Amino acid sequence: MSSYMEDRLIEETAIALLRRSVAVLPPDVLAALEGSLLLERDPTAKRELERIIANVKEAGACTLPMCQDTGLPVFFAKMGFAVPGFEEAVARGVRRATEEIPLRKNAVHPITRRNTGDNTGKGMPYIYYSFEASDHIDLTVMPKGGGSENMSALAMLNPSAGIAGIKRFVLETVVNAGSKPCPPVIVGVGIGGTADECMALAKKAVLRPVGSRSPEPEVARLEMELLYAINRTGIGPMGLGGDTTALAVHIEYAYCHTASLPVAVSFQCYAARRAHARIYKDGSVEMGGE
Ligand code: SF4
């Protein structure tokens, strides 16, 4: 494949991913919402969940955005081979998607608040990179709504705070957030690393399918304990009370300095949008598998 073709392929794939992600809720998230509806005991919460489920199904059927906030374009790229101009091709895809889908024009200069009108700008779209030896690129988009992103939090705890300190910080963050991240939420928790790495771990944790558990038993136990505790807060769907505050808690961790215990929380709202494509070196593209 020529680099011109690769370029076009990345651009078109970015548009297709954005189109799919804003309209079609991943099946694991929809199944978790439907499962919560069966278990929910609060009548108001049940009604809210029914409305949320009806809304996302309608959006999927009409291929229309499930929320007016179509988010900031955040991508995760696992690169099996290099494509010259990759970032610019993704940015072109974002610009065209903003017009063609259309998407809300969310990206502004942080100081002047000038809106570029196309969801791009310095550092935007944001792309997390990782690398592997393969014949393909895995490209995932996670449009990130402002309501959930605004509730993100980082604490550099004293290591003596231990697991109790981690739990306290996560729970306090969820309680302080209340209705603002549009619950039921997926709570991504990063533990360890450096401060910036910890925040990135929390964001990546949000991407995991709902229902997945950490393969490490002590981490999986902490995920379950936190999910149970969060759902006992009574915040409920859209903050109106009930049993269903979170659909999942996902934890990712990294080794950290012996003097540090960083903990980060990233929220994803009920509109937990993500879409994935695998782009092969021969020019073929597989959509789905998110
Ligand atoms: S937090 Fe999510 S559901 Fe709420 S307004 Fe933002 S994008 Fe929409």
TrEMBL record:
Transmembrane segments: none annotated. It holds the Pfam family Fumerase. Keywords: 4Fe-4S, Iron, Iron-sulfur, Lyase, Metal-binding. GO terms for molecular function: 4 iron, 4 sulfur cluster binding; lyase activity; metal ion binding. Residues 14-277 form the Fe-S hydro-lyase tartrate dehydratase alpha-type catalytic domain. The keyword Protein biosynthesis does not apply. NCBIfam families: PRK06246.1, ttdA_fumA_fumB. Belongs to the class-I fumarase family. This is Fumarate hydratase class I alpha subunit.
